[in-house]
Write a structure and sequence with these properties.
Helices cover 59% and strands 9% of the residues. β4 (96-99), α7 (103-111) and β5 form a beta-alpha-beta unit. The chain has 160 residues and is mainly α.
């Protein structure tokens, strides 16, 4: 099994300096080429957290058959970005788990029986696998919310 991430999850944890926790939980983390391009563009406009991401993840290219599947999906799934679609194709074909917060990507994964983790699921796994304790997770949530200008709803559910 492989773990493939979209740019949103990496950005969220990267801004909070928590990429090492992702690596501790999942081991090797892969990104498709489209996600690499998104991260590269973020770096070009001044987001320095991208350096840590690029040092800690591996680009996983699509095979010719996977690329053909991606091209077909681009035509059918107009609400998903290339990074999510390439990640979905990789996970579908290589028994992977997708890391994504995108609602549409999660719905696609549910419909096609592709395993995924969103931010709350990752934080819950940090807690259950003892990567971080409750206090550390609450601190990380606060940092993510501040630095990524987002809100993680139902934080209490992480500790159930």
């Amino acid at each position: 099994m492989i773990v493939v991430s979209d740019s949103d999850i990496l950005s969220m944890f990267g801004k909070a300096g928590a990429v090492s926790h992702l690596k501790q939980l999942f081991g090797e983390i892969y990104i498709p080429p489209a996600v690499y391009e998104e991260l590269r563009r973020a770096k070009e406009i001044g987001f320095d957290f991208v350096d840590d991401l690029i040092d800690n993840i591996m680009i996983l290219n699509l095979s010719g058959e996977e690329y053909s599947e991606f091209v077909r999906l681009v035509k059918d799934e107009r609400y998903l970005h290339s990074g999510e679609l390439q990640g979905i194709v990789l996970c579908r074909n290589r028994d992977g788990v997708l890391l994504t917060n995108d609602r549409r990507a999660k719905n696609f994964c549910k419909r096609d029986d592709i395993a995924y983790f969103d931010a709350k699921g990752i934080l819950r796994s940090f807690y259950r696998k003892r990567v971080l304790n409750e206090e550390e997770i609450r601190s990380l949530v606060k940092e993510i919310e501040e630095k990524d200008n987002t809100k993680i709803k139902g934080v209490w559910e992480i500790f159930e």
